[in-house]
Amino acid sequence: MSNPAEPHTSAPNAYTDNVVFADLTPDELARVSHALEYVPLGLGQVLYESGEMMSHAYFPVDCIVSLLYVMEDGASAEIAVVGREGMIGIALFMGGESTVSRAVVQIAGHAYRIPAAALIAEFRRSEGFSQRLLIFALTLIDQMMQTAACNRHHTLDQQLCRWMLMSLDRLPTDRIEMTENLIGNMLGISGAEAGAAARVLQDAGLVNYADGIIRVRDRARVERRSCECYAALKRATERLLHTAS
Fold first, then answer.
1. What is the dihedral sign for C-alpha 174, 156, 241, 25?
2. For residues 85 and 94, what is the distance between their CA atoms, to the nearest angstrom?
3. Under 8 Å CB-to-CB from 179, ≥6 apart: which residues?
4. Helix (H, G, I), strand (E, B), or coil: what is residue 80?
5. Cβ-contact 125, 31 below 8 angstroms
6. What confidence score (pLDDT) does residue 97 get?
7. Each residue of 78-128: pLDDT tens digit?
């Protein structure tokens, strides 16, 4: 079950640190911001489970949330990651109240949280807000398709490099704090296999890895070791960001 966070007391003064809000008119932003809470999200926190009714949507600020497809035996694999470029809960404005994926906080930080009813009401009322959400939804679908192809056709090394680069693009640092089990959940492998894969990259001089913290030493080499999927996903995200400028 999901575990809603408590409201945080030090919310920023502006809401444009999430891209969805960046191009809203003052009136649109005032209406939607009235319903927003600024909340902390902890590493590994489950925002919602597969099939669970969603009471809120989330707009990440400095955190990253992973969407996982969960099998009947409990095995999972990442199908998308979302940071400040988007939101969690697209099913709410696309006619559903639940989804087949699990949403887990991959990198701890903060997000704006909005009740489902308020999100739907503003989506129906505001052309600017609804357009931003639909553009993001298309980008998220592109990411899911690319990730599915990557998981099928590319090596574990390439997938781990793609995953690290996508995380770094959404963070202000070169430091990724993750447990081996969470990395394994993202890639659909065991925690031990995830740790071994990270150590292979460390032995190659691409990263430092210790105590659940990955620090990229040579991003250019990580990009070269990654597969074509990272570049394709980055282009899709840049198109999204361009439409908000």
1. negative
2. 19
3. 43, 44, 191, 212
4. strand
5. yes
6. 77
7. 889 999 999 999 999 988 777 888 999 988 999 999 999 999 999 999 999
Structural contact between residues 65 and 106, judged by C-beta atoms closer than 8 angstroms = yes
For residue range 171-226, what is the model confidence (pLDDT) as tens digits?
Answer: 877 788 888 888 887 777 888 888 888 888 999 999 998 878 889 999 999 999 99
Q: Kindly list the strands in the beta sheet with 56-60, ordered across the sheet, starting from the edge strand earlier in the chain.
A: 37-41, 109-115, 56-60
In single-letter form, the type of residue at position 201 comes to L
**H helix runs in the chain, sequence order:** 26-33, 116-125, 127-153, 156-169, 180-187, 191-203, 219-225, 228-243
Beta bridge partners of 48: 103
Q: What is the pTM of this model?
A: 0.83
């600017």: which residue's tokens?
A: 128
Q: Specify whether the CB–CB gap between 216 and 168 falls below 8 A.
A: yes
Q: What is the amino acid identity at position 191?
A: G
